[in-house]
Design a protein that fits this description.
heterodimer, A: alpha+beta, Cytochrome p450, 3-stranded antiparallel beta sheet, B: alpha+beta
């Protein structure tokens, strides 16, 4: 009998999907779920890579979120993430210039200053709300700054961004439509300002950009800005928050990091693999495709389950399910694969590295003091709130 | 070993540069420049990491 899992529900991803992923990889690696109009769930590493690198066969044009039961058609003016070749590359190159290792590495002092400012508000021994109160402030400030939003707007930005992805979460007061509208109005204002005066921010870069000799339309520009804000925000926040929980659950590995911060970059790769903060991306078959004895029909949705691929025993061996910050090599697919792979991956790595470097230099003990409240999302089921107490050993106090 | 770049696949994200900055560089136009057609002496590990780490599968090594 074929396994049956609610792959269309947020609760599946908020719980521990590990055992289900394992079952699916072994017993139904190309797995049909009939909910929401139906979609194929892909759980093996090799298959995720195969599909992700064949955009002509598996298109992004109908959207990358898993089917929600509403009809999907291609957007006539799609955003970067839902654009197929050849236009995708031309659009992506416009913005990738701003995200090369050289540019991102140059941001390290600024990232460190922001992280230090945020961590200055946390005192040893005092309970603090960690996800929203500390972690979330870092990526939102960086991305808002990259976009060119003034500092006084950063908090408002975070609220809108949270709301625009957390539509299924009753804990978020603002509806996603309201948040989207508010952001649109705000971006329109920033664009009007840049029409008077260009700066070196991403909005100015995009306003001057051309694809095939044509400027981006107002709608395309807007879609770009929405995408960058949401993509640069939730994902990094949840990598750091869920990564911290992984360290709390593995105190011996937390100790290793405190004692030897040079292990932090490898630890972040393992957090990426083990958590896979973005659970999936969806592709749409452009013709009938045979895969592992199943026929994926033209037009059907194919959901690439990165968290499942990232625990594939064929690639990560018998310890695939375990969290191990010393894992090497670690060729995880947490940033996706193929030409749509995460544009901001260097920035995400930088933010997470600097955050943990600064955190662990100040605090060598982290304990949860209450329940972890999760975002009810199928794509980025992150941490809404988590209360922790941070402890600093006496002999480490005053090191910085 | 020769480094082969499939420019049609490359998205200029620069992952290769972060692994092997002496061999790969994304220029100010967002285009990847391969600084050395052959794998330099002693750089095989980092170039291999760059090739395997390319999410766009745009790089390969040929004997």
């Amino acid at each position: 009998m074929e396994p049956n899992y609610p792959l269309h529900l947020p609760d599946f991803y908020i719980g521990d999907p590990g055992p289900a992923y394992r079952d699916l990889r072994h017993n139904s690696p190309v797995h049909w779920t009939s909910a929401n109009g139906g979609f194929w769930g892909i759980t093996r590493y090799a298959d995720v890579k195969f599909i992700g690198s064949r955009p002509h066969l598996f298109s992004s044009a109908n959207g990358v979120l898993m089917p929600d039961g509403k009809p999907r058609t291609a957007d006539p003016r799609p955003m970067l993430i839902t654009t197929d070749p050849p236009r995708h590359k031309a659009m992506r190159t416009l913005i990738s210039k701003g995200f090369t290792p050289k540019h991102i590495n140059a941001m390290e002092p600024e990232v460190r200053e922001i992280v230090r400012g945020v961590l200055d508000s946390a005192e040893p021994g005092i309970e603090v709300e960690y996800a929203e109160g500390l972690v979330a402030k870092v990526p939102v400030r960086i991305i808002a700054d990259l976009l060119g939003a003034p500092a006084e707007d950063w908090e408002q930005f975070r609220a809108w961004s949270d709301a625009s992805v957390g539509s299924a979460d009753p804990g978020v007061e603002l509806s996603s439509q309201e948040a989207f509208g508010a952001l649109t109005t705000y971006f329109r204002r920033l664009i009007a300002l840049r029409e008077q005066h260009r700066t070196n921010d991403l909005i100015s870069l995009l306003m001057d950009a051309e694809v095939d000799g044509e400027s981006l339309s107002h709608d395309e520009l807007m879609a770009f800005l929405h995408l960058l804000l949401v993509a640069g925000n939730e994902t990094t926040r949840n990598l750091i928050a869920l990564g911290t929980i992984a360290l709390i659950n593995h105190p011996e590995q937390l100790r290793m990091l405190v004692d030897d911060p040079s292990l932090i970059p490898a630890a972040i790769e393992e957090m990426l693999r083990h958590i896979s903060p973005v659970t999936h991306m969806t592709r749409w078959a452009t013709e009938d495709v045979e895969l592992r004895g199943k026929t994926i029909r033209k037009g059907q949705a194919v959901v690439l389950l990165y968290g499942a691929a990232n625990r594939d025993e064929d690639v990560f061996g018998e310890t695939a399910e375990q969290f191990d910050i010393t894992r090497r090599p670690n060729p995880h697919l947490a940033f996706g694969t193929g030409e749509h792979a995460c544009l901001g991956l260097s920035l995400a790595r930088l933010e997470a590295r600097v955050f943990f470097e600064e955190l662990l230099a100040r605090f060598d003990r982290i304990e949860l003091t209450g329940e972890v409240l999760r975002m009810r999302s199928t794509m980025v089921p992150g941490v809404r709130t988590m209360h922790v107490r941070l402890g600093a050993a006496d002999d480490r106090a005053g090191v910085r | 070993m020769r480094i082969v770049l499939d420019r049609a696949r490359c998205t200029g994200i620069g992952i290769c540069e972060s692994f092997a900055p002496t061999v790969f560089e994304v220029d100010d136009n967002g285009e990847l420049v391969v600084l050395s057609a052959e794998v330099p002496e002693g750089a095989l590990d980092e170039v291999t990491a760059a090739v395997e780490g390319c999410p766009a599968l745009a790089l390969r090594l040929e004997p």
